[in-house]
Design goal:
The protein is an alpha/beta fold and 132 residues long. It is 45% helix and 12% strand.
Length: 132
């Protein structure tokens, strides 16, 4: 089980698991029927204001990650389905940005993985403590 990212312009592979588009806008030049995906969760994408502010400027990346995480914290209903899917199997977050290292899917993946780690730690602590 894991979370990975992939550009929508790359071919799907068997290890992708559940493929979910996480961009606010539909990718340019891609027909909806031609893109293999489970669903499009545009609500989990950064707000238009944040997306425009970032403008894929690498110098703004650390601040973008922080601001995006803050947005995600206020909308758990948007990312919880992704977390649940990641607990059940492989998930691929699809995006259209050119930069493969600094984009909303990469930031979202880091955010979700931190939630998964936190949950695993909580479960280990509960097991060690035993029943109340």
């Amino acid at each position: 089980m894991g979370i990975q990212t992939r550009r929508v312009y790359e071919a799907a592979v068997g290890s992708d698991g559940v493929r979910i588009l996480v961009d606010r806008l539909w990718p340019r030049g891609v027909k909806k029927e031609a893109l293999p995906l489970e669903c499009w969760l545009k609500e989990v994408a950064p707000s238009n204001a944040l997306r425009k502010w970032f403008g894929h400027d690498p110098r703004k990346w650390p601040e973008f990650e922080r601001r995006y995480a803050k947005e995600l914290e206020t909308h758990p209903e948007a990312w919880r389905p992704l977390l649940n899917a990641a607990r059940e199997g492989d998930v691929t977050l699809l995006y259209s940005a050119h930069d493969t290292q600094r984009n909303n899917a990469v930031a979202l993946k880091a955010y979700l993985e931190s939630k998964l780690r936190k949950r695993r730690v909580q479960k280990r602590v509960q097991r060690r403590q035993g029943p109340p």
